[in-house]
Amino acid sequence: MRNRWLIALSAVGIHISIGSVYAWSVLTRPIMEAVGAPLRDVTWAFSIAILFLGTSAGFLGNFVERSGPKKSGLISMLFFGAGMLGTAFAISRQSLALLYLFYGVIGGIGLGIGYITPVSTLVKYFPRHRGFATGMAIMGFGFAALVAGPVMQYLAAAYGLIPAFVLPGLVYMAVMGASALYLKPPAKAAPSPSEKHAAPPPSLDGLSTEEAVRTWQFAALWWIFFINITCGISLLAVASPMAQETCGMTAEEAASLVGVIGLVNGLGRIAWSTVSDYIGLGATYALFFLIEIAAFVALADAKTPGLFQCLTLLIISCYGGGFSCMPAYLSDLFGVRCLSAIHGRVLTAWGLAGIAGPTLVALFHDQGYGYAVTLYLFAGCFLVNLVVALALWKSRRMAWKATLDAQ
Question: Which residue among 27, 55, 125, 269 is the one 20 to 30 A from 195 at the CA level?
């Protein structure tokens, strides 16, 4: 039997490695100069990576379930490592096409497989604290940019752009390899001594992937995940210029805000997932959307730096929490038998949102509408999300009551 805290550490090891994709922006300008391409073209490498994260997670989820966490973790290591090393090669060849191939496609496949690999295993080791368990791993993905960003920026300045991808790539491969080799599903759920007299844990059985995706609950979760990411990633993409344009923050102050956003993105994942273990997942998602409706409306009229920063960080905490609570919500609704595969299908929303969100913001801004119209639109989307979340919550409560009555 593996130690469940070391299993959690292994999950964090994989996620903090692949989460370095969020540090992409710190090397955007050096890459533009190296390959001789404008910002729009270089940014597509990041968008392609997120797209392939979602699509590979969606289409390879069943493969991850069949292969087990060790094998799929090692495959993720190979793809992600090849993506990092290949990116260095693409830069040396000054090739935008190779950049798309290695960082976007190959690296993106590694991202998708690695993201879903430890989730199902981790839930089985923490059956009564599923939100906290998945929050630990997914927190690593959110925190990764805090470590990777400064390190890659330093390496690029001190040694050049190619070592800034080669050296971290080798380190990530070592961390991911060691983490994958330790991952192993438990023979059965392993509650702590204090949990022995609690209510029985959720069943380790559940729906198949095909059965789950045919339910309206899956469609509802896919939708609210898509909206949460579309709006959140849009704010992430424009936080710095928006802060400077709307409330007069300096470039240095806006850059500091971006750093704090990375911290709150990570903290929000573990904090909200822990909260969900106490108030329930349905209530947590409803609370997310209530907060985001109010925050986006207020942000559209925020004129002072202090208010702008508080509202932005509040939204980003909910954005991160939406990621970390999703695996637990899926296991709550569909069981954990095919959790990795079902989670992968939901992550297709991330791939599409990674393109839709920044594109939508840029479109409205370029048409002269500014940021306010987009923020009001996002608030309206979250109003729809709130209705959907309440329907899911009510449905789950009715199902739970029917189960108790049957007993």
Answer: 269
Lowest mean pLDDT among 109-113, 220-224, 239-243, 314-318: 239-243
In whole angstroms, what is the distance from residue 241 CA to residue 219 CA?
34
In contact, 169 and 88? CB cutoff 8 Å: yes
* pLDDT for position 199: 41
Residue 115 CB neighbour total at 10 angstroms: 28
How many other C-beta atoms can be found within 10 angstroms of the C-beta atom of residue 194? Answer: 8
Is it the case that residue 369 has pLDDT exceeding 70? yes
One-letter amino acid for residue 369 of the chain: Y
How many angstroms separate the Cα of 365 from the Cα of each of 6, 251, 303, 373? 47, 19, 18, 9
By the 10 Å C-beta count (0-12 exposed, 13-18 middle, 19+ buried), 223 is classed as: middle
How far is it, in rounded angstroms, from Cα 87 to Cα 96? 10
pTM for the full model? 0.77
**DSSP output for 326-373:** HHHHHHHHHBSTTHHHHHHHHTHHHHHHHHHHHHHHHHHHHTT-TTHH
Contact 124, 186 (CB under 8 A): yes
Answer yes or no: is pLDDT of 194 > 70: no
Judged against a pLDDT cut of 60, whether residue 86 lies above it is answered with yes
Q: What are phi and psi of 293, to 5 degrees?
A: -60, -50
Taking the C-alpha atoms of residue 75 and residue 353, their distance in angstroms, rounded to an integer, is: 25
Burial 32-64 (b: 16+ CB within 10 A, else e): bebbebeeeebbbbbbbbbbbbbbbbbebbbbb
* Model confidence pLDDT, tens digit, residues 347-364: 999 889 888 887 787 788
Question: Which CA distances in Å does 329 have to 54, 268, 298, 325, 339?
Answer: 18, 17, 29, 6, 10
CA separation for the pair 143, 148 (Å, rounded):
9
The 3-state secondary structure of 30-54, one letter per residue: HHHHHHCCCHHHHHHHHHHHHHHHH
